[in-house]
Amino acid sequence: MFKKILVANRGEIAIRVIRACKELGLATVSIFTEQDASAVHIAKADQAILVTPGPIAGYLDYDQIIKVAKWAGADAIHPGYGFISENWRFAQACEAAGMGFIGPTATAIRSMGNKIRAREMMSAAGVPLVPGSPVIETDTEAMDWAGSIGYPLMIKAQAGGGGKGMRLVNNDEEFRQGLPIARAEAKKAFGDEAVYLEKFITQPKHIEIQIMADKYGRVIHLGERDCSIQRRHQKLIEIAPSLVLTPEKREAMGEVAKKAAREINYHTVGTVEFLVDQDLNYYFLEMNTRIQVEHTITEIITGIDIVKEQIKLAAGEPLCCTQDDVKFWGHAIQCRINAEDPRNNFFPSPGKITKYQSPGGIGIRIDGCVFGGYEVPPYFDPMLSKLCAWGNTWEEAVNRMGRALDEYIIRGVKTSIPLYKKLLKDEEFRSGRYTTEYMEKKILELSYEDVKEPFDIYYIAAAALFFEMNYFYAELR
Ligand code: MV4
Question: How many angstroms does the Cα of residue 10 sit away from the middle of ligand 1?
Fold first, then answer.
């Protein structure tokens, strides 16, 4: 086992990883940049090292990070998500430096980063793909493929992913015009102009399977998460399990995800993303070779600490359990609490948090990185915390999340809490049958006039004292 881990990230995920290390009895090192000097993750580790330059570049400079990890005597680096977590060059640099990397091999990261290569490998493994083309070279080839796939179709960048470098076209004319634009955008964004085509799946659900694999050829899946509630490719609410999958579909998709992992000799935790259409046909979309933001809800319904397992797997330990050992228990929901204003087009809202009171009680989990008095910096992802609720039934989980959101007090910055309060009352959301198109449409219809802020106890007590009433009665809702 490792003895000391350097956590190459910030915010809630750095704290999440440090917690796993502590439970495993491992020492921890944080890194931080100058503009992030009051961040919570710094104080949660045993040691903290300033990296430069700020605000962000220090978190991306993997040569520097490997250097400070060696200097601190760490034997492995955990990259979290974002930043350098899916940079195969970083994984390769760790391999070259003899530094442990808590994640996949550079080869696996690289293969899944190239969307055509990923499709080829998944096809070889027997994973269903969205009907599509290889890389498009010539204009005649382009029109031939468009003809055989049919419209509407998507032009996607080979080096894209996560919603970046995609373009929807509905007919020959849009395709002819869109193709050079898509190539130019791909070139600008990724330095690689190669694009390919995929049939456009209308009204899909985004459903992903969590997998875990060890270095001895064993692979298990931990069921699915439905991440269809997104805005501009940012997930907002994730649930587990999905309300539309049958046990047979879950089993089939789980087995397919395991085949995908075996095909690429995967030996860590990962996620296989699928689009699921209205008839429950599923198609491979991408594979995420990192720990994900929403791993929490899978932990809640399985009782498995995915980050701890990820560290143990990197150290060469065998899988914690067999597929038969994995049991699913109830329903979990996660709301990402962001510092942005849902009343004003999700405009970012950094600044000082003047008051912070988090919910709690049965079935609630919070992974956060803020406190009253903390100044939310404008440089990073706006996520303040992940609020999760568990319930024996879907209904209990939703009602518990509503109760927790009502308890949550964050003042000084605008947050996405009012949005979630509204969504949880929406019938379409509660049905669980929403697609990836639900959110953008719903946002336009929502009005926040009836969303109530929690009261401050101080004002209630002050009113009672002011009116000198022995039997003061306050109407709080
Ligand atoms: C698609 C699609 C429909 N058909 N591909 C968006 C994120 C990236 N991973 C792929 N994405 C999509 N690819 C085909 N062939 C629809 C989307 C999509 C989407 C997917 C998942 C979650 C939210 C989405 C929102 C818009 C579009």
Answer: 28
Residue 49 Cβ contacting ligand 1 at under 6 Å: no
Catalytic center residues? 290
Angstrom distance (rounded) from CA 146 to CA 133: 9
The distance between the two most distant Cα atoms of the chain, rounded to a whole number of Å, is: 85
Specify whether the CB–CB gap between 116 and 98 falls below 8 A. Answer: no
From the CB of 198, is ligand 1 less than 6 Å away?
A: yes
Q: How far is the CA of 341 from the centre of ligand 1 (A)?
A: 25
Amino acid 400 reads R
Ligand 1 neighbour 286 (Cβ under 6 A):
yes
Residue in the block written with tokens 């269903």 = 128
| Tens of pLDDT, residues 334-390 | 999 999 999 999 999 999 999 999 999 999 999 999 999 999 999 999 999 999 999
Helix (H, G, I), strand (E, B) or coil at 198: strand
**Is the pTM higher than 0.90?**
yes
Q: What is the mean pLDDT of residues 117-141?
A: 96
Pairing of strands 27-32, 347-348: unpaired
Which two three-digit tokens encode residue 98? 């003899």
Residues 6+ apart with CB under 8 A from 403: 359, 361
Report in angstroms the alpha-carbon separations of 55 from 91, 353, 403, 432.
23, 20, 36, 39
234 lines ligand 1 (CB under 6 A): no
Please state, in angstroms and as integers, the Cα–Cα distance from residue 12 to each residue in 269, 292, 393, following that order.
Answer: 19, 12, 28
